[in-house]
Amino acid sequence: MKSILSQQQVALSIKRLAHNILENHLELNDTVIIGIQPRGIYVSDRIVNELKALIDPAKIRYGKLDITFYRDDVRKELKIANKTDISFSIENKSVVIIDDVLWTGRTIRAALDALLDFGRPAKVELCVLIDRRFSRELPIHADYVGRTIDTFPSQKVLVHWKEKDGVDDVVLI
Amino acid sequence: MKLSTRHLLGIKDLTKEDIQLILSTAQQFKEVLQRPVKKVPSLRDVTIVNLFYENSTRTRMSFELAERRLSADTLNFAASTSSAAKGETLLDTVNNILSMKVDMVVMRHSASGAPHFLAKHIPAAIVNAGDGINEHPTQGLLDAFSMTEKKGTLEGLKVAIIGDVMHSRVAQSNIYLLKKMGAEILVAGPPTLIPKYIKEAHGVNVTYNVMEALQWCDVANVLRIQLERQNQPLFSSLREYNLAYGIKRSMLDKLNKEIVIMHPGPINRGVELDSDVADGPHSIILNQVENGVAVRMAVLYLLANREN
Q: In chain B, what residues touch A76 (CB-CB under 8 Å)?
């Protein structure tokens, strides 16, 4: 087991990602944040909390998107559907979708399909805590990355969160 | 995570966990139905045939819509306009349809047990959309979904099933489901329309006094009088049925509580329900219809996704 991010590094990465998003979307005027269910929500919750400390919280439009029904492997394994909660229009908005780990790109492909059923955004960007390089199965890249790592397909990246696992860290096994 | 059964033939075969899984999945599909694009690609590689040997409006349309919302390909079959009218057997008809590479069959039939018969003979997943006087499982599930939505939980909920219990597959599915989920049930109606051994068979209480049932319950699920299934009169006239067993606004006004009125449709207005009850503030009849699509999407999704 190899540590990728310690508790302190997770906190710093999230702070940096929040600042990176704000650099490109000042005051989030025409920007919305969407976390991907189920595990991306932990990162997006943290990033949104950081954003709330930096700008007027009333300006932040934050939604959660479940992609279960858009997966391309539904016939192989049935996942429990999670809650989707997007209470605002994404029409002509810049959307920043947030997930914990970018690996094959299939989850993000499904997320893009799901997102487009809510309207036509002006632009979509991707923010991830961990980018597993060289393992993409689709042409998808992240705009904001906490840490880029090289892995073998047989390895697993585990992202732990205090509220669920008792500790914040990222490990490779 | 999967259902414990390959087909949905009746609520009788489902576990409590199956029911919870279907209802929670339906909740997510209900959200999908509120979106600008009310459609997901989940079942785009699945072909479903709707095999209706008996007339139906809302169940058939609800299944069709659910299938399309899941991006499945659909085929519709009505017995009256098919070779069944020329004497083709059920199994021959279905085997011919299956030769066209159909994955699932949604079936309504006037004979109790028809979908069970099919399940034994063909490889496709079968969804029972109502078989004779036996079961109507998706109606039971959508009723449960609507009750949960309105009252929060089924556990300990007092549900009165009122009317033609004898001929009602909806009543049967409701009783199985509500008992599994911990609700209390009272059936009410004329003695001739309540099966004699229902208490022994299902452990539910019986009253022949509709007002007593209304006073007791949180939810009144009122059933249609199914004249088409009665080969001899079981009550004197529709007018007298309404006078003795129909739900009227004045009865609800006398109750010192909020009550939910449900009906699986189609309503015989002025017989089992007066119009001002059917269209009144207590009624969630149209919510039931709306929820039917989400519940049927959940059932089809969960059955189509099984690795067989």
A: 307
Q: Residue count of chain A, please give it.
A: 173
Domains, chain A, ranges and CATH?
2-172 (3.40.50.2020)
pLDDT 10s digits, B180-229: 999 999 999 999 999 999 999 999 999 999 999 999 999 999 999 887 77
CATH number (domain holding residue B166): 3.40.50.1370
**Same-domain pairing of B39 and B98:** yes
Residue pLDDT, tens place only, B89-121: 988 988 898 898 899 999 999 999 999 999 999
Show Cβ contacts of residue B75 under 8 Å, excluding neighbours closer than 6 positions.
B47, B48, B49, B50, B97, B100, B102
Clarify whether residues B83 and B207 are in a common domain. Answer: no
- Does B111 share its domain with B161? no
Judge if B279 and B145 occupy the same domain. Answer: yes
State the complex-level ipTM: 0.82
Question: Residue ranges of B for the binding site?
Answer: 58-59, 86, 108, 136, 139, 169, 224, 265-266
Binding site of B for L-aspartate, by residue number, is 86, 169, 224
Say if residue B17 is in the same domain as residue B51. Answer: yes
The closest CB to that of B37, out of A74, A79, A117, belongs to: A117
Cβ distance B28 to A70 less than 8 Å, yes or no, reads: no
Nearest CA in chain A to B306: A75
Closest-CA residue to B269 (of B238, B240, B290): B238
* Domain of residue B205, residue span: 137-286
How many folded domains does chain B comprise?
2
Which H helix or E strand runs over B47?
strand B47-52
* Prediction pTM value: 0.91
Paired strand residues for A150:
A133
- Shared domain for B247 and B147, answered yes or no, is yes
Contact between residue A121 and residue A92 where contact means Cβ atoms under 8 Å apart: yes
- Same structural domain, B111 and B143: no
Is residue B44 within 8 A of residue B278, CB to CB? The reply is: no
Beta carbon pairs, A and B, within 8 Å: 50
Sign, CA dihedral B289-B291-B294-B300, equals: negative
Nearest to B28 among A75, A83, A117 (CB): A83
In a domain, B5, yes or no: no
- Name the residue in chain A with its Cα closest to that of B35: A118
Q: Is there a single domain that holds both residue B143 and residue B281?
A: yes
H-type alpha helices, chain B = 16-32, 58-69, 90-98, 114-121, 137-151, 169-180, 198-202, 210-216, 238-245, 249-254, 275-278, 285-304
CA distance A146 to A133: 13
Report pLDDT digits (tens) over B16-45: 999 999 999 999 999 999 998 999 999 998
Q: CB A118 to CB B305 under 8 A?
A: no
Q: How far apart are CA B156 and CA B185, in angstroms?
A: 10
